[in-house]
Specification:
Shape: elongated
Order of helices and strands: HHHH
Distance between the termini: 29 Å
Largest sheet: none
Length: 113
């Protein structure tokens, strides 16, 4: 069966949804994957947008927990989480560009959607 969806558009929108986490200090950054979720008809792009939204919630939750803990560990806890969430985001973008026909799933996160 022939693929009905444009691979380049799928790569772009999926990567954009996951890449919005780089703007996570801005509350409006979650609007990017939400907009993609409502605008796109592609099921893989929708799945990636949902996963990006869930990851936003997790980053905020862990940030609330780790920011106070960072004061006790002289920034170590926050620094490690910063590296982890940026590393996971880079992994998600690389996956979307390399395997556009499969949605990316972040490991070890809570999924609300």
């Amino acid at each position: 069966m022939q693929n009905l969806y444009d691979s380049d558009k799928r790569k772009l929108l999926s990567s954009l949804a996951h890449g919005s986490i780089f703007l996570s200090s801005l509350i409006v950054a979650i609007g990017i994957p939400i907009a993609i979720l409502f605008v796109s008809e592609d099921p893989v792009v929708k799945a990636n947008a949902k996963e990006a939204i869930n990851f936003h919630f997790n980053v905020w939750l862990y940030g609330i927990i780790l920011i106070p803990l960072s004061f006790l560990t002289f920034g170590l806890a926050g620094g490690i989480w910063w590296l982890v969430h940026w590393g996971l985001t880079a992994w998600a973008i690389a996956h979307c560009l390399g395997t556009p026909d499969q949605a990316f799933r972040y490991p070890f996160i809570f999924r609300l959607l």
